[in-house]
TrEMBL record, chain A:
<dbReference type="GO" id="GO:0002250">
    <property type="term" value="P:adaptive immune response"/>
</dbReference>
<feature type="domain" description="Ig-like">
    <location>
        <begin position="1"/>
        <end position="89"/>
    </location>
</feature>
<protein>
    <submittedName>
        <fullName>IG c1033_light_IGLV1-51_IGLJ3</fullName>
    </submittedName>
</protein>
<dbReference type="InterPro" id="IPR003599">
    <property type="entry name" value="Ig_sub"/>
</dbReference>
<keyword id="KW-1003">Cell membrane</keyword>
<keyword id="KW-0472">Membrane</keyword>
<dbReference type="Pfam" id="PF07686">
    <property type="entry name" value="V-set"/>
</dbReference>
<dbReference type="GO" id="GO:0019814">
    <property type="term" value="C:immunoglobulin complex"/>
</dbReference>
<dbReference type="InterPro" id="IPR013106">
    <property type="entry name" value="Ig_V-set"/>
</dbReference>
<dbReference type="GO" id="GO:0005886">
    <property type="term" value="C:plasma membrane"/>
</dbReference>
<dbReference type="InterPro" id="IPR050150">
    <property type="entry name" value="IgV_Light_Chain"/>
</dbReference>
<keyword id="KW-0393">Immunoglobulin domain</keyword>
<keyword id="KW-0964">Secreted</keyword>
<dbReference type="InterPro" id="IPR007110">
    <property type="entry name" value="Ig-like_dom"/>
</dbReference>
<keyword id="KW-1280">Immunoglobulin</keyword>
<keyword id="KW-1064">Adaptive immunity</keyword>
<dbReference type="InterPro" id="IPR013783">
    <property type="entry name" value="Ig-like_fold"/>
</dbReference>
Length: 110, 123
């Protein structure tokens, strides 16, 4: 059971938009920055979003992040088949003193 | 170009030890915290622990599942981070990833990842 809650899967058609939610509590998302990671099949994770809504260089602006209270959201617009991957949110939990992840969300581009 | 290369994985019996290495290049290693993550087959990501830079004491934090068994260390002169794993259990079987931690604690984010090394604990 993950400390952060993500939907197990989401799907949408190419060109459409999808959002992935990440729900936590005041001890993690509520008081710390959230980052998002993309893991393509058979590869290492890659940083997509950091400090809630910032994109590293090289990440297209189709990817966006936001945070409100104890929840965070990853948005992906203009979906491409190459976006099919597992997506993870993560943050520090100040009460547990550990880094925590969501369980991951598998994106399918139909 | 930032690169992180893990090594040292393999098959090990329960109760034995293994040391993983993470060789870094392309950045000033000593300026960054380093972290280890793992991913069991077919499962999600799990944080193992991290080590702060010497400027922040070089101190470590660990997940409850490995505390007391695993130790993270660093050799800034060689740009290598280590993960010493003792008293290994079958549930430690996973791909282990080394990452660079940017930002400031506790708001780290992990901007570069190695390719991972597989550790299999089995008799």
């Amino acid at each position: 059971q993950s400390v952060l809650t993500q939907p197990p899967s989401v799907s949408a058609a190419p060109g459409q938009k999808v959002t992935i939610s990440c729900s936590g509590s005041s001890s993690n998302i509520g008081n710390n920055y959230v980052s998002w990671y993309q893991q393509l099949p058979g590869t290492a994770p890659k940083l997509l979003i950091y400090e809630n809504n910032k994109r590293p260089s090289g990440i297209p602006d189709r990817f966006s992040g936001s945070k409100s209270g104890t929840s965070a959201t990853l948005g992906i617009t203009g979906l491409q088949t190459g976006d099919e991957a597992d997506y993870y949110c993560g943050t520090w939990d100040s009460s547990l003193s550990v880094w925590v992840f969501g369980g991951g969300t598998k994106l399918t581009v139909l | 170009e930032v690169q992180l290369v893990e090594s040292g994985g393999g098959l090990v019996q329960p109760g034995r030890s293994l040391r993983l290495s993470c060789t870094a290049s392309g950045f000033t290693f000593g300026d960054y915290a380093m972290s280890w993550f793992r991913q069991a087959p077919g499962k999600g990501l799990e944080w193992v622990g991290f080590i702060r830079s010497k400027a922040y004491g070089g101190t470590t934090e660990y997940a409850a599942s490995v505390k007391g068994r695993f130790t993270i260390s660093r050799d800034d002169s060689k740009s290598i981070a280590y993960l010493q794993m003792n008293s290994l259990k079958t549930e430690d079987t996973a791909v282990y990833y080394c990452t660079r931690a940017s930002g400031g604690w506790p708001s780290y984010y992990f901007d570069y990842w190695g390719q991972g090394t597989l550790v299999t604990v089995s008799s």
